[in-house]
Amino acid sequence: MVPFCVIAAEKESADLIRQNLIKTGLYPDWEFQVCTSAKDLYAFSPDRPDVVVVSRFLPGEDTRVLLQRLPLLFPASHIVLLAGNMDEKGKAFVRAAKQVGLNNIVTGKLPGDRPYNILAALKYAREDDELSALVSGEEETVTPAEEKGEYVPEPPEAAPLVDAAYKEPPLSHSPQPARPQSFSPVGGQESRRDADYLDELLGRYAGSPGQALERPTARAFPAKPVQEVRVYPRTGERGVFVLTAANKGGVGKTTVAVTLAVALARAGVPVALWDLDFGAPDVASFFDLSGVAGIEALAKGSFRPEMAGGLLVKAGENLYVLPGPMDRTVPAFEPGEIGAIAQHLLSRFPVVLGDTPPEFWTKPWLEGVFPLADKVLAVVDQSKLSEQETAAYAPCLLAMGVTPEKISIVLNRFSSKLHNAKLVEKHFCSGFKKDIPAKMLPKVAAVIPEEWEAYVQRGYKGEVVGLDDAYSQWHALAGEIATAAGYTYRKPEGEKKAFFRFFGRKKKK
């Protein structure tokens, strides 16, 4: 797979960085694309670039907001920051980056201070203790690269001469990265360049940053009061069936289902939210529903289409809930009855979201339900214990009749200070057979920030978190579901056409 790198820098420098990287001959198989504003950078999030290079002087967003958003929008990317000279502003930038777990920082005038210049940074991580020395004002002790076994880039033997700032001494042994990265080895060469203007044209990294543009705060769609029950009849195609799943409790599975349902409903997409966790139903509690019958009324051969419609409770404009058991008992359903209810809902709603229980593979009523799903959102976290559990997750989904291409990973309680989201994907996909094509393997579709307390506290108030931000990944995930259902997803007002790029990036010719 061709490594894909996005370079986000001020207009005067972005394309020059790209050109000079290409002309070193170190990246013959890489695809480089540039952008010159934070808004344009955010639009690359759905493309999952392998590497994201961001200048401290990138216009269009407050620096701290930008740094906070980068790990959330690009959780599986290798993020490299260009800090410029280490004056007071440069040190402040590095401190702010470290606070959100971004340590791959290139300092100084490009190509950067050795040994961690931009050529090394594109492939390898920087050790945190090196940054600590820079921020504290201490003089960094640089051990020769040969002694440290550190990567020092060298152009291929046949590559043309380049600017002296891009030439590095050779290594006598194989490089040892500070942290493994899943990037393709380089080799070959690109065309010759005029090696006379790198320092002059990219020297502005040593200067003062430009004025950052303020982005107006995005507004959420107003919640609608609960009204009478009314279902939008569907004709023609079947609706889209999405399930949330988890291999254990407490990972935020119901929060994912509720948030997506609210996002879609506010955007004008009729949604049925179905609580399939019969042992511990929570959806009705979130919406403060009481005094209504639950799905137990359809058990023991009682299912009739008109009865299912009568159980739907309107929880907001375009949002209907089919509650779990309201009598807190686990109803006994005959084989095929839950599947029949699913088919009925899918005939009447463009989107049906089902919230399944933890350890879903042990629940007999779910037999035959998972194969009906168009998408399964597997909710996981980054804990060490969860790594082993995540590896055993995939076989359980396969046993329920779910194929790999229908699975997307939602990474909950995400902290950029911990490991990269690609490691979570690696553990998750280790449960699949090796002959499954890489493009079919599940990927992280969204991350929930580690400020989990905010979700819990506002959840008790019947509120959802994150939908007022036009750049939230909730909107990307909801937009994907809406598109599959044949709807145009409307984000909160404020930012238009900034996040979705449904037609993909411009391909390299």
UniProtKB/TrEMBL annotation:
UniProt cross-references to SUPFAM superfamilies, sorted A to Z: P-loop containing nucleoside triphosphate hydrolases
Residues covered by the CobQ/CobB/MinD/ParA nucleotide binding domain: 243-425
GO terms under cellular component: cytoplasmic side of plasma membrane; cytosol
Any one Gene Ontology BP term: negative regulation of cell division
GO molecular function: ATP binding; ATP hydrolysis activity
Keyword set, alphabetical order: ATP-binding, Nucleotide-binding
Polar residues: bias regions: 173-184
InterPro entries (alphabetical): CobQ/CobB/MinD/ParA_Nub-bd_dom (IPR002586), P-loop_NTPase (IPR027417), ParA/MinD_ATPase (IPR050625)
Region (Disordered): 135-191
Coiled coil: none
This protein's name: Septum formation inhibitor-activating ATPase
The species this protein was found in: Moorella thermoacetica Y72
